[in-house]
Design a protein that fits this description.
Blueprint (H helix, E strand, L loop, with lengths): L9 E5 H15 L3 E2 L4 H5 L3 H10 L4 E4 L2 H9 L5 E4 L8 H6 L3 E4 L2 H14 L3 E6 L14 H8 L5 E7 L11 H15 L8 E3 L3 H6 L7 E2 L26 E6 L2 E5 L4 E2 L5 E2 L4 E6 L16 E4 L2 E6 L7 E4 L12 E8 L2 E3 L1 H8 L3 H6 L7 E4 L1
The structure holds pyridoxal-5'-phosphate.
Length: 375
């Protein structure tokens, strides 16, 4: 038995659900390309597992955050086109060119650094020009794009393969701002004929559901491929067809009867109200279970929601399993995120409790938790 396989807390990655979600998204965008975003270890799902399965489905262009993420996948033998979504620095040009990673660029310095490096090694390097139509994070201002493209003409080793933008508010019910952005992007595109640009891309998951006019040539879905809703405000009811890819489970390692009034875990932030049966499970904030959920979440045991009690510690957490007295045993399965019987705990439920979004919940499951593919 490998060392990894004896870890009791695991994240299971359901590849059937990944396939299902990709089919749904592909149906929505029709013949346009889908470029799945597998940055941040595939939103915590395990980038190697996800990328390998996606390539088996025929998807071979991936959005990653930076060079290191792409290299990790290359070293796993995953041959793909990698689009670097975060802005690199000119000093990264040699590494990016060496591996032909396609950077999204917002500055002329970056374009020049890539072009000169490509020329030096006798290559042509593809890039995607990022336009800030309203995200306010990265990108050229719309009125400077034409000038930028014109200046890039000086570099034959630079292939401006794509032009892109990003939505900050496509997941909101009110689409007014996103539609204004789309208008700005279209205006930019009208001035970019003749520069050899092949791919225009803008749509994230929310836009795939709610803004079909943003499909252009390719879409970059992230959260939806993992079966999670971009927000609760998506209008297109097909969002309900998504199936969550990740389940997070652990097992009971210790059980004890405790009397009423007993303080539990650090700071005794919980005292039993009555004689209680308490289970200890080997998951904590070291695994990505936020300490702020202490006394504030439930986990599933035998299909029953059991209250988490006391402070969540680095490695261990307590559950009140009194309702399962006589039934529950050491070694029993505990579901942190996922389904058991008729009950389900979702990443959205934990996100709501923490005042955050499902993206953060799954992305923060730490590297200590093995990702196990289910196929
Ligand atoms: C540039 C870019 N495109 C696409 C995505 C995917 O977004 P989503 O996960 O909302 O589909 C992201 C995610 O943050 C992004 O930064």
């Amino acid at each position: 038995m490998s060392e990894q396989s004896i870890r009791l807390t695991k994240a299971f990655v359901n590849l059937h659900h990944l396939t299902h979600n990709m089919r749904l998204l592909q149906e929505l965008v029709g013949s346009r390309q889908l470029w799945p975003c597998i940055k941040a270890d595939a939103y915590g799902h395990g980038a190697t597992i996800i990328a390998r399965h996606l390539t088996s489905l025929g998807y071979t262009t991936f959005g990653i955050a930076d060079f290191e993420e792409g290299m990790a996948l290359v070293q796993e033998g995953i041959q793909a086109t990698y689009i670097v979504l975060s802005e690199p620095l000119p000093e990264h040009a040699p590494a990016l060119v060496a591996h032909s990673f396609e950077s999204t660029i917002s500055t002329f310095d970056m374009a020049e650094a890539l072009a000169r490096e490509a020329e030096r090694v006798g290559k042509r390097i593809a890039v995607h020009v990022k336009v800030d139509t309203g995200m306010g994070r990265l990108g050229l201002q719309p009125d400077s794009v034409r000038n930028f493209l014109e200046h890039c003409q000086a570099f034959p080793a630079l292939h401006i393969r794509g032009i892109m933008s990003h939505f900050p508010r496509a997941d909101e019910r009110d689409k007014e701002y996103s539609l204004e952005q789309l208008g700005r992007f279209r205006q930019v595109l009208a001035g970019t004929q003749g520069y050899g640009i092949e791919v225009r891309h803008m749509a994230n998951s929310a836009a795939i559901f709610d803004l079909p006019d943003s499909y252009f040539d390719a879409a970059r879905p992230g959260i939806a491929i993992y079966g999670l809703h971009p927000s609760r405000e998506i209008a297109n009811s097909r969002v309900n067809e998504l199936k969550p890819v990740l389940e997070w489970k652990t097992r009971i390692v210790f059980l004890k009867e405790v009397p009423a009034g007993m303080g539990l875990s650090y700071g005794h932030a919980y005292h039993t109200k009555r004689q209680s049966l308490i289970a200890t499970v080997p998951v904590g904030y070291g695994d990505g279970l936020s300490r702020n959920l202490s006394n504030h979440c439930t986990m599933l045991v035998h299909g029953v929601r059991c209250r988490q009690v006391g402070r969540i510690t680095m490695d261990l957490t307590l559950l009140d399993v009194t309702a399962l007295r006589g039934k529950v045993q050491q070694g029993d399965e505990v579901v942190i995120i996922g389904r058991q019987g008729a009950e389900e705990v979702t990443a959205d439920e934990l996100a709501q409790k923490l005042g955050t979004i499902n993206y953060e919940i799954v992305t923060c499951i730490s590297h200590r938790v093995p990702r196990i593919p289910i196929s």
